Automatic annotation (TrEMBL):
One of its GO terms (biological process) is glycerol-3-phosphate catabolic process. It comes from Sulfitobacter guttiformis. This is Glycerol-3-phosphate dehydrogenase. GO terms for cellular component: glycerol-3-phosphate dehydrogenase (FAD) complex. Residues 11-387 form the FAD dependent oxidoreductase domain. The lineage of its organism: Bacteria, Pseudomonadati, Pseudomonadota, Alphaproteobacteria, Rhodobacterales. Its EC number is 1.1.5.3. The keyword Flavoprotein applies.
Length: 532
């Protein structure tokens, strides 16, 4: 598997290759710490690739009075947009209003209003929504994103897909993010700065020896290796509690609440490029989001998930819930026949004793434990939007153990391929088309939204499509596959078509099988810049 040259001890060993683990690894190595990370599967293979794909402040969290979390997330949206304009971009959200919108009964806001204005009987008044959006516009010092406007739904593109009873809406800004690519680019940047990234490598045990952690790793092929580290970051996501109790064998009262969020992807339900924020009569909300040009993403649910070892799936009941919810707003009902794909992820929320999955805190919690001698920092919860701030908070707790730790540095520092202005996609598109005229419009857009300025490096000296080697379908070429294996830690067809891209929505099963066979047969000949 390979180990650091002339380096037997690392400062920080990170368990978990989701957004929190990779974000912390990147921040720490950039501050001068030696860092190693292990992920038992593919990067972003669990929670971090199963999000609703949004950088958002969390408008509904205002009802839970999580003001600090919302403010931090709102500020971060624009910080992140500047650092990754290829994989994130602004979106407008349409929030239709009707008189039957209700609070969830256990939110702090609903409890106060039930006392002060009992005649509302749990309904959300329009003035309260407008006040919430005013806070949303102003809490985060907005500079790039547009503010809230009122919208008449009659005779407008935004109103066309909606039921005629809906006449009024509010429109506000949030952002889209390619979640699993965000994780991979953080891992790549961490590696480029000196971190050692292991994928498909399980941490079998971590034990205290002479004031250090001795960590036993097992690669997928069964090969084992021991790493010594001064400190561990447990960013195991849904497995964070399992790592504490079973891997490190620490007796701790800290626990995780597993909440399953499921999504459905349907055929394209409307023609414009705005999202809808639908509020239910039960106080819940869902989004319908234009997705991958030809589809619509609908989510999410909130359901307790009991067993971390049980793979989360979007159950038939959850599918019916999402279909029924969207159909209460859309003119044309959405049915099972419209679904082309489903996915589900487990959010590892800090167990704060909340009465419902929806009410459990979305804020992150960082717990430092030195009971075994050498320190371990465990990460609970977190949102993709605040991953960078979570990493900075983690480094505040880590820094006292390492005198050489440098200052904060990640704000606005571009991720690989993101070194161009937020409004620079148009000129970059024109440049790519001019240099590679054989690319179709859709192909150009896909490459830019995945690789940004690195699309030029990927395509290199190609003069024709044939120069890129075999086309596996949907313009996924041999050269791109080699790039993903050599530079982006991909090992299987699934890594490529569902996490490095979303080409699984377009490619036929026989094309996917052919890609998988090719990758297996080529594995011995493809150079890998990371251990497997």
């Amino acid at each position: 598997m390979g180990q650091h040259e002339n380096q037997d001890i690392v400062d920080l060993f990170v368990i978990g290759g989701g957004i929190n683990g990779c974000g912390i690894a990147r921040d720490a190595v950039g501050r001068g710490l030696s860092v190693e990370l292990a992920e038992m599967n593919d990067l972003a293979s669990a929670t971090s690739s199963a999000s609703t794909k949004l950088f958002h402040g969390g408008l509904r969290y205002l009802e839970y009075w999580e003001i600090r979390l919302v403010r931090e997330a709102l500020i971060e949206r624009e910080t992140l947009l500047r650092a990754m304009p290829h994989i994130s971009w602004p979106m407008r959200f349409v929030l239709p209003y009707h008189k039957d919108m209700r609070f969830e009964s256990d939110t702090p806001t609903s409890k106060v209003l039930n006392v002060l204005v009992p005649w509302l009987k749990g309904r959300r008044p329009a003035w309260l929504i407008r006040f919430g959006l005013f806070m949303y516009d102003n809490l985060g010092g907005r500079k790039i994103l547009k503010g809230t406007t009122s919208l008449n739904l009659k005779g407008t593109p935004e109103g066309a897909p909606l039921q005629d009873r809906l006449e009024k809406a509010y429109e506000y800004s949030d952002c889209w993010i390619e979640d699993s690519r965000l994780v991979v680019l953080n891992a790549r940047d961490a590696q480029a700065r000196g971190a050692f990234i292991n994928v498909r490598t399980k941490v079998i045990s971590a034990a205290q020896v002479s004031g250090m952690w001795q960590i036993t790793l097992e690669a997928q092929g069964g090969e084992r290796r021991i790493v010594t580290a001064r400190m561990i970051v447990n960013a195991g996501g849904p497995w964070v509690e399992d790592v504490i109790r079973n891997t490190m064998r620490i007796n701790s009262t800290e626990g995780v609440r597993l909440v399953r969020g499921s999504h459905i992807i349907t055929r394209k339900l409307y023609d414009h490029d705005k999202c809808y924020f639908f509020q239910g009569e039960d106080g819940r909300i869902i989004f319908t989001i234009p997705y991958e040009t030809d589809f619509t993403l609908i989510g999410t649910t909130d359901a307790d998930h009991e067993d971390v070892h049980e793979k989360p799936v979007c159950t038939p009941e959850e599918q019916d819930y999402l279909l029924g919810f969207a159909s209460k707003y859309l003119k044309k009902p959405v049915t099972r026949d419209d679904i082309v794909h489903t996915y589900s992820g487990v959010r590892p929320l800090y167990n704060d004793g909340a009465t419902s999955a929806t009410a459990a805190t979305r804020d992150y919690v960082l717990k430092l434990d030195q009971s075994a001698g050498a320190p371990v920092l465990s990460v609970f919860g977190g949102k993709i939007t605040t991953y960078r701030k979570l990493a900075e908070s983690a480094l505040e707790k880590i820094a006292p153990f390492f005198a050489q730790t440098g200052p904060q540095w990640t704000a606005g520092v571009a991720l690989p391929g993101g070194d161009f202005p937020v409004d620079g996609v148009g000129p970059l598109t024109a440049e790519l088309k001019a240099k590679y005229p054989f690319l179709t419009e859709r192909w150009v857009n896909r490459l830019l939204k995945a690789y940004g300025t690195e699309a030029f490096d990927l395509l290199g000296d190609a003069k024709t499509e044939g120069d890129l080697g075999r086309n596996f379908g949907s313009n996924l070429t041999e050269r791109e596959v080699n790039w993903l294996v050599e530079r982006e830690f991909a090992n299987t067809a699934e890594d490529i078509i569902w996490r490095r891209s979303k080409l699984g929505l377009r490619m036929a099963s026989k094309e996917i099988d052919a890609l998988d066979s090719w990758m297996v047969s080529s594995a011995a000949n493809l150079p890998k810049h990371h251990p497997v």
